[in-house]
Amino acid sequence: KIVILDFGSQTTQLIGRRVRELDTYCEIVPYNKFPKEDTTIKGVILSGSPFSVYDENAFKIDLSEIRGKYPILGICYGAQFMSYSNGGKVEPAGTREYGRAHLASFCKDNELFKGVRDNSQVWMSHGDTITAIPDNFKVIASTDKVEIAAYQVEGESIWGVQFHPEVFHTEDGTQILKNFVVDVCGCKQDWSPASFIESTVVELKKQLGDDKVVLALSGGVDSSVAAVLLNRAIGKNLTCIFVDHGMLRKNEFKNVLIDYDCLGLNVIGVDASKKFFAELAGVTDPEHKRKIIGKGFIDVFDEEAHKIKDVKWLAQGTIYPDCIESLSITGTVIKSHHNVGGLPEKMHLKLCEPLRLLFKDEVRRVGRQLGMPEHLIGRHPFPGPGLAVRILGDITPEKVSILQDADDVFIQGLRDWGLYDQVWQAGVILLPVQSVGVMGDERTYERAVALRAVTSTDAMTADWAHLPYDFMGKISNDIINKVKGVNRVTYDISSKPPATIEWE
Ligand code: XMP
Fold it and tell me: Pathway listed for it (predicted)?
């Protein structure tokens, strides 16, 4: 495996995903928690960081713990730190170097650059730059602006790159990472969905024996794949519970239950919508709504689970990004996600998380390998509290029904126009606004909705989707004509940051 030491960069997870795409297992750990005892490590990558090496609180490590024991690749701050701590010089760049650059010259015979094309585009994002390297370091690549764009320590398997090989805009980034991971570190590229399934099923059988397990299904990809995997390992000992809080998409509860049935899962569907509507009546504060739904969900699930005899385990579709220990540089909670945490504490059951090592795209690959239908695998993410966080202001069954209808027109439209798979996620927001319109000869005074569709790779950042005008015109018409109570449609063109994907 490869260990990625995280110094707090926004792209650390991306490094992990790129390594996994090379069918190589890797783990991301905080910079100061190197797993010394682990004998399966083949190489180490040092990530970037929001800090400058000169900052008082900059994250620092004792390099002697890893130097000479494993090949090392330092990226951005990782490269600056290795050079600086060996006597090199790092200085603020005249202007922040941000965006595209080209490898104007590089050592073609260096192992790290095998297969890299002349003048290949690389992506820079750094405030500091390496201005001098120690004597035994050798410059192996330069761009027209940055002389020390990459270096190698002479006679050692240690490299530093000032640019970001993990980002999409570095054209030969994957090749560079492959050179490091496969050629230098000798990883065998044997991490595949099929091998993951095979070994996980064996482990689950061993871990769970003849014990009974409950799992909360949400209709989403993660919990569904976790359920199918567990079903393969322990069959009838798995009971899934799917709670309808009344704020799912139109017909979602019914359709998803049919899907699960086809997959041979043992599922109990619980319609608890009345309880949730009663508890949410009159509540307008977004965090308060989230708390009510989170707690209500746990209560309903707990009650149902207690009806099953001798349950020992709670299974969850937790995935790797939820488990990576965050360095919490700012420590602010933007939104409390209701499905992370809460349940395990309440239930006093042992926790089983078969997907805890996988990134989202790997979960999808595993689902496909397990034979799950594409419409389940390719599903857009949907927030745990559902349409509750897409109705601004208080929630009533009538508003939910209007929103479900408008959302259905939009989502069906995306599918019909072949746009569904091009966006990360889409939905409609019901605004607490009424406006004047005219329909036939009548004056109307009805609700406004906002369409939201974004592109993203991990929901951490997102851009509004540039959907065709013709499509938007058609959807707007359809919503206003078909959905009673709506007379105005707008499109949300904010990116994240500074906005978020959901409105609440
Ligand atoms: P934001 O709005 O923070 O959303 O940009 C990022 C992603 O998370 C989803 N989301 C949630 N998912 N429980 C979830 O499972 C929640 O409470 C929740 N709130 C937001 C959101 O849909 C987007 O994919």
Answer: Purine metabolism; GMP biosynthesis; GMP from XMP (L-Gln route): step 1/1
Burial class (CB in 10 A: 0-12, 13-18, 19+), 313: buried
| Closest by CA position to 463, among listed 450, 452, 449, 476 | 452
Domains of the chain: 2-184 (3.40.50.880), 193-377 (3.40.50.620), 396-491 (3.30.300.10)
The active-site residue, picked from 26, 97, 126, 166, is: 166
In whole angstroms, how far apart are CA 380 and each of 249, 414, 457? 12, 12, 12
For residue 110, how far is its CA from the centre of ligand 1 (angstroms)?
44
Sheet strand arrangement including 26-30: 26-30, 2-6, 43-46, 72-75, 158-161, 150-153, 137-143, 89-106, 121-132
Decide the pairing of beta strands 150-153 and 137-143: antiparallel
* Overall pTM surpassing 0.95 (yes/no): no
Is 224 assigned a ligand-binding role in the annotation? yes
Question: What separation in Å is there between the alpha carbon of 485 and the centre of ligand 1?
Answer: 27
What ranges in 209-272 are assigned the alpha helix state H? 221-234, 252-262
Residue 76 annotated as catalytic: yes
166 is catalytic: yes
| 249, 293, 297, 335: residue to mutate for ligand 1 pocket, most atoms within 8 A of CB | 335
Q: What is the mean pLDDT of each run of 10 residues along the chain (504 residues)?
A: 95 93 95 96 96 92 96 97 96 77 95 97 89 96 93 98 94 97 98 95 97 95 97 98 97 96 97 98 96 93 94 93 70 56 77 93 96 95 96 98 98 98 97 95 96 91 96 98 97 94 96
Expressed in angstroms and rounded, the spacing between residue 427 Cα and the centre of ligand 1 is 12
